[in-house]
Amino acid sequence: MIVESKVVKVGIADMNYCKAPNKIRTSGLGSCVGVVLYDLNKQIAGLAHVMLPDSNLAKGKTIHKAKFADTAVATLIDILEKEGVWRRQLKAKIAGGAQMFTFNTKDDYMRIGPRNVEAVKKELQRYAIPLISEDVGGSSGRTIEFNPETGLLFVRTVNKGTKEI
Amino acid sequence: MVNKDSLNPVALDVLKEIGNIGAGNAATALSNLLNKRIQMNVPSVRVVSFNEMMELVGGPEETVAAIFLQIEGDLNGSMFFVLPVEKASVFVRQLTGNNEFSFNKPPYPEIGLSAFQEMGNIVAGSYLSALSDFLQMQIMPTVPDVGIDMFGAIISFGLIEISRESDYAIVIDTEIIDSNSNIDESSIKGHFFLLPDADSYRKILTKLGVGTL
């Protein structure tokens, strides 16, 4: 039997998960960070496209969970646990957090990329999820695609080619 | 909070007029700079989700040449001038007289990046000074920065501040078309995106006496 594999697409400030042979992908990460949590035994992976480091930054009444590093990691764990994954089996790979532009402005608004990366790492530590590999920082946009069968994260950039981490 | 249905028709017309005035002035400046006719479409004002925003110029992965600057003063927000890479290359060739120049592959020669940045400075400055005159408000742009990268990676920078409050952005989008271009029509459009933050929209609409969103 031939099983056709699909690619699950995740938008900005959004999250989803997939099981092998499907793959999961998000495009055009700039200062945003793509967080992949996966279990290689169960061949399942969740991906969140995080925009901001902390839900305390939210001004609105409702919090959109996939948007913030803290709420996104927690929610992604919940989603995967509902699919029968053990939290202790989870591993992580992350990419993104670029500093696309380099102004000198009054606040550290422009450092949002590095701040997102720091915040995601802090959350992974909080839940004791090992970070297996990362492709973060720099000044290039990234598109990432994760294969839950191999555990490899494919990273494409416009200016620096492609790699697998 | 900006909602999907929060723009009333009068506010919509006012914001369109802002796009018209700003981009009209910018198109004239660009036209003078390049010594060619630049046409402009009627601006569109839309309330879009962030994902819809990513689709405005061919999807989040589309490589574009962009000028980005922030606005400070009486209004706060971001402004982008986004061109297809090929179009930006043509403009830079005309400005520098270097017929070999291209943004297709890095590294990009410094002279070309500078020329593109300066073009952005002039064009965005014209947009914003027209806006400032019309609104009688002080608008101070930062020095523009250039990005040749994925559209999603670039435009999401303008959404950071907005995203603290909302899942939608109001975007004033004006297309410009270089009329004597020989490249396929669909690929030659440039876009001005003005993304004032929510407070600034309220200020604009109050100033012009059309109430709140």
From TrEMBL, chain A:
Keyword annotations: Chemotaxis, Hydrolase
Enzyme Commission (EC) number: 3.5.1.44
Pfam families (alphabetical): CheD
SUPFAM superfamilies hit by this protein: CNF1/YfiH-like putative cysteine hydrolases
Catalysed transformations (reactions): L-glutaminyl-[protein] + H2O = L-glutamyl-[protein] + NH4(+)
Function comment: Probably deamidates glutamine residues to glutamate on methyl-accepting chemotaxis receptors (MCPs), playing an important role in chemotaxis.
Family of the protein in this entry: Belongs to the CheD family.
Protein name as annotated: Probable chemoreceptor glutamine deamidase CheD
Organism of provenance: Pallidibacillus pasinlerensis
Gene name of the encoded protein: cheD
UniProtKB/TrEMBL annotation, chain B:
Classification via Pfam families: CheC
Keywords carried by this UniProt record: Chemotaxis, Hydrolase
Keyword Hydrolase (UniProt): yes
Domain CheC-like protein: from-to ranges: 11-45, 111-147
Sequence intervals crossing the membrane: none
Entry-linked SUPFAM superfamilies: CheC-like
InterPro entries in the cross-refs: CheC, CheC-like_sf, CheZ_family_phosphatases
PANTHER family: PROTEIN PHOSPHATASE CHEZ (PTHR43693)
Name of the featured protein: Chemotaxis protein CheC
Organism listed in the record: Pallidibacillus pasinlerensis
